[in-house]
């Protein structure tokens, strides 16, 4: 494949194609009045910079309004992250504004929770109801009995409100359901984590290993662009994935590993590298401790040992270990992102961290750069009240290396009332029904609440369980907090309204401020409006809101980002060195060097359920976006061709997946393919919506989360592993 078609395959920056799709898709769905921001002229073409919210990568974008109508969104050319090109989801961002299913008015529950029957109320009625309940909960149980679940920068003003109210229980699913184990594994090894955007220098890597990370389907913009550049430049690529992913189709080596055995493969690589002394000696001597203990622990983990476990031939393991070492330190073993798979995920991440350490890639060009950022003053707020009780999610430090709050820990406390009762949930921009494993437990917890508030743009499944629904304006209709990015060059960026909020929707900052007044917490919101807040922070840092609004982003001076450019190597672990052997883990009786332990395998007739991303959707949040809906309406289940033949199924047939606990999926289309192993099946996450409010997307495709009834908790940091469910396949009636 030549480089042009390779690039095209990765589908970034198809701006013109995106616009064409827009016109077609929107004409079918747009009946609502469009109110352009008062600062926008009614005639002519007008552009406004902002940053994208179709996922959490925060690419900088420029929205174009033509003759008073929102026309297109493109990448901001001065943005170091998007380099002027958005992914298909970002380009389809206009669809979130034109989505006919979006929430329009504040709602209160009419009957039982979950019935999705509503009374429309005024904002004032909604806030009065919430504040009364919150005050009651505070006087009866203390402020800690209210928890906030949020995801994304939009949640900042609610986090602030909750801290002012007095609760420390603020959690996001991006920790215990996503990257938490990775961050714990890297922190235990290097003293720092990989961050988001990840500090991976993919574009300069000479040897790239992807263990499950399905770049090209996982569409995090910068990574995908850097990936395309690297491939074009001839970077060696090794993809380890039970499925022949888009990335695998570009690879020099594809290892269709038996699911759940990656630790064995990584240990075998480490075994070869330490025994043949292929590691970066100078780097390891200078910066690492524990090499001897590492060597001893992995001494039996030979490629011959790993072969029957992983299904990857010993000579291939040996050959690729040597190849990897040839390109060090520009050998990047990608740390992944969504790593909550099997319950030993922090250990798998630590094995990956150790392998990177041996390659000397941490802090080096083509490995992991040291991110830089600008210094922006925080707003001079009064001090928050102190919580006597502390957080509820991780009693007695049961998960000793949880450095963020565990969503599912809050859920558990809400069910058990221990270590203390939780009586109110505030949910901002996270669809907990689709996001946390075991839906029944989530519902059980919600049934124990005295107050359940959901702040949403769409009638998502979690919205159906709320007492009060607060409809938020979309990212195109509001300001959010300043984005202070940690990246290869320092910059800050702004999200600002392109349009006035449609219907009765309001921005989150406005809701938080109004609620603070009802709660008597107005001293924590001393600014009159968001512009005043943003301008104060910027002026106190030597910039202005006017300046930031105009360009969309402001860059700081370039700084060194690699050790070889002068970054001082620092490893904030207890020893001050890279810890190949972890005394910290040993002290808790946990494996100081990762070990392989066998996971349960699917019984006969069952297949392990795996899941991932589609390039044109984000989680469960874009299925009703008219533009993205047009691109992909339902997911399909990948079934190995041999298995499909045996079951007399062909591509396009509909089946039902039934898991080990008897839970049945919606009907889902078969994709019979040789591109997946025989022991697993695969679907894209986010489909199979059930909410009544999703007029078009409801009932289309299968929901992985419905089938994830079984999960395992990572003993190191409390993450919930979800690749432990097995399904049988029934032909749909
Ligand atoms: N388009 C799009 N892009 C996104 C997102 C989105 O919603 N849409 N979400 C973003 C977010 S928040 C995240 S966290 C990332 C997630 O994206 P990643 O971190 O890249 O992916 P995962 O979901 O962990 O992994 C999915 C891949 O792992 C493979 N896999 C499954 N089991 C195993 C196994 O046992 N071993 C190995 N080696 N591989 C296995 C699957 O076949 C699949 O290819 O994507 C980000 N990018
Ligand atoms: N089964 C299963 N579970 C998973 C995953 C998986 O692949 N499979 N992936 C895991 C990963 S990696 C992650 S990061 C998490 C992600 O989990 P979540 O953050 O919960 O992701 P979404 O399901 O997209 O939920 C986001 C919700 O925010 C709403 N929303 C969108 N824009 C706005 C806005 O501007 N304002 C407000 N107030 N709301 C808005 C959307 O309508 C949507 O309902 O899920 C994790 N859980
Ligand atoms: S990666 Fe795509 S969806 Fe995510 S912020 Fe960037 S353009 Fe938007
Ligand atoms: Mo994630």
Structural description of this entry:
By secondary structure, the chain is of the alpha/beta class. It has three domains: 107-175 and 384-475 and 505-540, Rossmann fold, CATH 3.40.50.740; 177-369 and 562-587, 3-Layer(aba) Sandwich (Dimethylsulfoxide Reductase, domain 2), CATH 3.40.228; 607-731, Barwin-like endoglucanases, CATH 2.40.40. 31% of the residues lie in helices and 16% in strands. It contains 24 helices and 27 strands. The strands form seven sheets. It has a seven-stranded mixed beta sheet with strand order 5-4-15-14-13-6-7, covered by helices on one side. A six-stranded mixed beta sheet has the order 21-23-22-27-20-24. A four-stranded parallel beta sheet has the order 10-9-8-12. Strand 1 and strand 2 form a beta hairpin. Helix 5 packs across helix 18 and helix 9 packs antiparallel against helix 12 (303-310). It is globular. The model is unreliable at 1-9, 13-25 and 27-34 (pLDDT under 50). Bound molecules: ligand MGD (2 copies), iron/sulfur cluster and molybdenum atom.
Helicity, in percent?
A: 25-40%
Tell me about the biggest sheet? 7 strands, mixed
- CATH topology value of the largest domain: Dimethylsulfoxide Reductase, domain 2
Q: Strand-residue fraction?
A: 15-25%
Structural class: alpha/beta
Count of beta strands: 27
Using only CA atoms, what is the Rg? 25 Å
Task: Return the average pLDDT rounded to an integer.
Answer: 95
CATH homologous superfamily placement of the largest domain = Dimethylsulfoxide Reductase, domain 2
């Amino acid at each position: 494949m030549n480089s042009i078609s390779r690039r095209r395959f990765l589908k970034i920056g198809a701006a013109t194609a995106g616009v064409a799709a827009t016109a077609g898709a929107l004409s079918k769905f747009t009946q609502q009045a469009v109110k352009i921001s008062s600062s926008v002229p009614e005639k002519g073409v007008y552009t406004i910079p902002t940053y994208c919210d179709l996922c959490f990568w925060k690419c900088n974008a420029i929205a174009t309004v033509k003759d008073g109508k929102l026309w297109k969104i493109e990448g901001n050319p001065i943005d170091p992250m998007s380099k002027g090109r958005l992914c298909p989801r970002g380009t389809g961002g206009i669809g979130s504004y034109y989505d006919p299913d979006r929430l329009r008015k504040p709602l209160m529950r009419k009957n039982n929770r979950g019935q999705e029957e509503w009374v429309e109320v005024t904002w004032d009625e909604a806030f009065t109801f919430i504040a009364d309940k919150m005050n009651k909960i505070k006087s009866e149980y203390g402020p800690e009995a209210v928890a906030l679940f949020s995801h994304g920068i939009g949640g900042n003003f609610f986090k602030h409100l909750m801290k002012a109210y007095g609760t420390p229980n603020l959690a996001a699913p991006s920790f215990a359901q996503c990257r938490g184990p990775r961050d714990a594994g890297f922190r235990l090894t290097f003293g720092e984590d990989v961050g988001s955007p990840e500090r991976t220098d993919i574009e300069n890597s000479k040897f790239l290993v992807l263990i499950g990370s399905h770049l090209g389907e996982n569409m995090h913009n910068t990574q995908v662009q850097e990936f395309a550049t690297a491939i074009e430049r001839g970077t060696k690529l090794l993809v380890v994935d039970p499925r022949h992913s888009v990335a695998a189709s570009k690879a020099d080596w594809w290892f269709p590993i038996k699911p759940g055995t990656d630790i064995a493969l990584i240990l075998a690589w480490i075994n070869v590298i330490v025994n043949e002394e292929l590691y970066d000696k100078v780097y390891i001597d200078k910066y690492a401790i524990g090499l001897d203990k590492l060597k001893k622990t992995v001494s039996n983990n030979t490629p011959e040992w790993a072969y029957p476990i992983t299904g990857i031939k010993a000579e291939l393991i040996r050959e690729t270990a040597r190849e990897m070492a040839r390109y060090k330190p520009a050998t990047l073993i990608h740390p992944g992102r969504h790593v909550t798979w099997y319950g030993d995920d922090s250990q798998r991440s630590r094995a990956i961290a150790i392998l990177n350490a041996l390659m000397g890639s941490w802090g080096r060009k083509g490995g992991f750069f040291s991110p830089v950022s600008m210094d922006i003053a925080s707003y001079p707020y009064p001090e928050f009240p102190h919580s006597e009780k502390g957080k509820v999610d991780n009693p007695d430090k049961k998960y000793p290396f949880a450095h963020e709050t565990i969503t599912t820990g809050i859920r558990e406390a809400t069910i058990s009332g221990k270590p203390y009762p939780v009586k109110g949930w505030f949910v901002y921009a996270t669809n907990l029904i689709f996001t946390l494993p075991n839906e029944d437990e989530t519902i059980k917890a919600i049934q124990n609440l005295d107050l359940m508030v959901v702040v949403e743009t769409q009638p998502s499944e979690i919205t159906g369980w709320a007492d009060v629904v607060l409809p938020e304006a979309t990212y195109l209709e509001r300001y959010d907090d300043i984005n202070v990015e940690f990246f290869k060059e320092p910059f800050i960026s702004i999200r600002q309204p392109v349009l006035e909020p449609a219907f009765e929707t309001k921005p989150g900052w406005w809701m938080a401020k109004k609620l603070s007044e009802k709660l008597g917490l107005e001293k924590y919101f001393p600014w009159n409006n968001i512009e005043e807040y943003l301008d104060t922070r910027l002026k106190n840092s030597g910039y202005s809101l006017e300046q930031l609004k105009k360009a969309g982003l402001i860059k700081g001076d370039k700084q060194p980002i690699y050790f070889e450019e002068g970054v001082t190597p620092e490893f904030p672990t207890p020893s001050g060195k890279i810890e190949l052997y972890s005394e910290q883990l040993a002290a808790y009786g946990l494996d100081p060097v990762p070990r392989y332990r066998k996971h349960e395998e699917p019984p006969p007739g069952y297949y392990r359920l795996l899941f991932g991303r589609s390039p044109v959707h984000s989680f469960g949040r874009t299925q009703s976006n008219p533009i993205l809906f047009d691109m992909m309406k339902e997911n399909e289940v990948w079934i190995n061709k041999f298995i499909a033949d045996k079951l007399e199924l062909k591509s396009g047939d509909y089946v039902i997946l039934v898991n080990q606990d008897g839970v049945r999926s919606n009907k889902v289309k078969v994709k019979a393919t040789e591109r997946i192993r025989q022991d697993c099946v695969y679907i894209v996450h986010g489909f199979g919506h059930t909410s009544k409010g999703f007029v078009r997307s409801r009932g289309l495709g299968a929901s992985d989360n419905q089938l994830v009834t079984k999960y395992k908790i990572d003993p190191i940091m409390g993450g919930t592993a979800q690749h432990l469910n097995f399904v049988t396949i029934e032909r749909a009636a």
